[in-house]
Amino acid sequence: MSQAGPLDLHREIVRPDWVDYNGHMNVAFYVLVFDHATDTFLDQIGLDTAHREATGNSVFVAEAHVTFENEVMNGDKLRITTQVLDADAKRMHILHRMYANGRDTLASTNELMILGIDLASRRVAPMAEIVAAKLSAMQNAHETLPRPHQVGRTIGIRRGQDV
């Protein structure tokens, strides 16, 4: 399951009703596509429906950041990759990258901090050992990858810099 490059797990096509008055995919649908990619990733590491039902444990997103690098248009074929940036017993820090139409040009990124949750108490809890082991293996495989400049960014107007 572990691989040296980002995981290449999710594909989606931009639907006409996702396009806004500016003629490109609306912000809300970037988040939707990234959420679908997160679900695909969670299934891959064993945090699927069967796991949730058997253990009463799940995950919640605690923080999310989206960057928009290039426009995505109606009918574009999207490819989402996932990189495990860090993980411990209760948390995972991942980055999704969105590419369109087979190009290597980055369209968007989604950085997430995800927490393990005990659904009965609604509190942060350790993830199952098998999930933690898969995450650790992915983190080890991805630790030599370059850290994308989008990771850890803050929002704000940077005076004196061109847009």
Structural notes for this entry:
- This protein has helices at 27-44, 49-55, 129-142; strands at 7-13, 57-68, 77-87, 91-100, 106-118, 123-124.
- Strands 1, 2, 3, 4, 5 and 6 form a six-stranded antiparallel β-sheet that branches.
- Strand 5 and strand 6 (123-124) form a beta hairpin.
- The longest helix is centred in the first third of the chain and has 18 residues, at 27-44.
- The protein has one domain: Thiol Ester Dehydrase, Chain A (Roll), CATH 3.10.129.
- The protein has 163 residues and is an alpha+beta fold.
- The chain contains three helices and six strands, in the order βααβββββα.
- The protein starts with 6 loop residues before the first strand and ends in a 21-residue tail after the last helix.
Radius of gyration, in Å, reads 17 Å
* The CATH homologous superfamily: Hotdog Thioesterase
Order of helices and strands: EHHEEEEEH
Q: How many structural domains?
A: 1
**Biggest sheet architecture:** 6 strands, antiparallel
> Termini, distance in Å?
40 Å
Helix proportion range: 10-25%
Mean pLDDT: 94
Indicate the low-confidence ranges by residue numbers: none
Class by helix and strand content?
Answer: alpha+beta
Q: What top-tier CATH class fits best?
A: Alpha Beta
DSSP summary: helix tally: 3
Please count the beta strands (DSSP E, at least 2 residues each): 6
Q: Beta fraction of the residues?
A: 25-35%
